[in-house]
């Protein structure tokens, strides 16, 4: 399996606990798992690189374990109990130089120090949807969720957040705007943070200023946003929603630059390439797609179902399905003289029939 894992460039988690590796150059996909012990409680909730060399993939599962997969050896090398399923699913996973960071839906954030059984626990509030690490300051993380605003935490001083976002002003009906942070991203080379919400908003915050409200807000679509990722080029963000819509937004003007086509189903994960104008996406339709951010064309498409197979190029397999289906036509009968028969009730309670002309 080592030869297969070393050529994979994209890694995906599945609901059955299978870790999938996809080689875009070889146009092949591979499953990495122990088939004898697959179950729904091993569903991968979150994933992260285990080291800067990207030789390890960490997978957080529904059952509270974090498994380490070696991309050099092609096997899982370690399993660690890092959570209680009763506390909720993992919403974030990250590593520092000497620690593992986990966060669950109940708001329990833990720092697991290497070589020690002791942990640092931080209560970041209930209803957490996402915990995200700052890539340039790895001891800092941001959290947010349903009725839980964006907060930034310094894990070296975790007593209280170093930034807490303030809710936007009340709407035109003078009603409070609900809070629902779904995903978070740190904008490179700045202190700014971008979030997407379950109410179609994309917001940019700047913790370096006294203003705790968004410095920019944009909206996309009519459905809850589920994921975001920041491209290598500065100034834009890619967002996806529950109806399989992907869009590129300009973070300076708050405008939609364009949409990425081809998805069918809620977007579950987005990841932009660190240096190339490419974005990978996956969702409930069980397909992995790679789009170009320059001309928004679909570059690669492969099934992320539980069977291994060749990665398909952009083909019209959906059209083939529709072409093979039988066409059904509905025949209607016109009533003679265009008359409808209706039933009316008389004053005596007896039903009588009456012909009504159209």
Automatic annotation (TrEMBL):
Location of region: Disordered: 298-358
Query: Which residue windows are coiled coil?
Result: none
Q: Name one GO biological process term.
A: RNA metabolic process
Q: Which InterPro entries match?
A: WD40/YVTN_repeat-like_dom_sf (IPR015943), WD40_repeat_dom_sf (IPR036322), WD40_rpt (IPR001680), WDR74/Nsa1 (IPR037379)
Spell out the Acidic residues composition-biased ranges. Answer: 307-323
Superkingdom: Eukaryota
Q: Where in the cell is it found?
A: Nucleus, Nucleolus
Q: Cite the entry's keywords alphabetically.
A: Methylation, Nucleus, Phosphoprotein, Repeat, WD repeat
GO cellular component terms attached to this protein's record = nucleolus; preribosome, large subunit precursor
Keyword Repeat assigned to the entry: answer is: yes
Quaternary structure, from the entry = Isoform 1 interacts (through WDR repeats) with NVL; the interaction is independent of RNA or pre-60S ribosome particles. Isoform 2 does not interact with NVL. Interacts with MTREX; the interaction dissociation in a late stage of rRNA synthesis is required for appropriate maturation of pre-60S particles and depends on the ATPase activity of NVL.
Its name, as the record gives it, is WD repeat-containing protein 74
- Can you name the source organism? Sinocyclocheilus anshuiensis
